[in-house]
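Worked example

This section walks through a single chain of length 199. The input is the sequence exactly as stored; nothing has been trimmed or padded.
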Amino acid sequence: MKNVKVGETVEAGDKNNPLGWAKIPIGLPNLIHGGKAPAKIGTFASHGCVGLTNPQIKDFAMRLAQAAGTEINDEQVSSYLKERTETHEIKLDETVPVELRYETIVIEDGKLHVYKDVYEQNTNTEENLKAVLAAHGLKFEDLPAAKQTELLNALKSVEKKKDVAVDLPSLTQKGYPAPVELDTGKGQPARVAAANHKH
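Given that input, the structure is written out below as tokens.
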């Protein structure tokens, strides 16, 4: 944040606190936390934390507690939100495993996405591209020459963009599914795409 210096401690409840009202430790120094504006979601503004909006972190915290068998309800959460300068620690009844992956070439809802390698881990390589395709039963060399060129160009052009998507009809219904009831940060789920509804 522009009003906070590196290493500065910001008190709970302060409007300049970049963590919002909740933080979930997932192995130091990383956190899942709130405090993000909807426009900042999906931008390159983190050293490893997962930033969510306050409505998103509330929903996630309640789902996490439920998964861990820990009882927490809306009334409790609302009371914590009113006491913004107090810190409340909730211990989960069970450990919930967390796996953070840094994947910049992924299949999402039938499309191949190449994301910018913001941490400069040299992940956007032809070798990784072929491995991702192979993991979904597709051999790079079996694709038409024009599609091969399109994929290789995606690897090169993504450094100037946030991400590049390439349609591959043979990957339809493969990879990570499209989001369902995605909270866009406005406190209410976005409408689910018609393709996800049963007719």
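What to look for: Helices lie at 54-67, 74-82, 126-135, 145-157.
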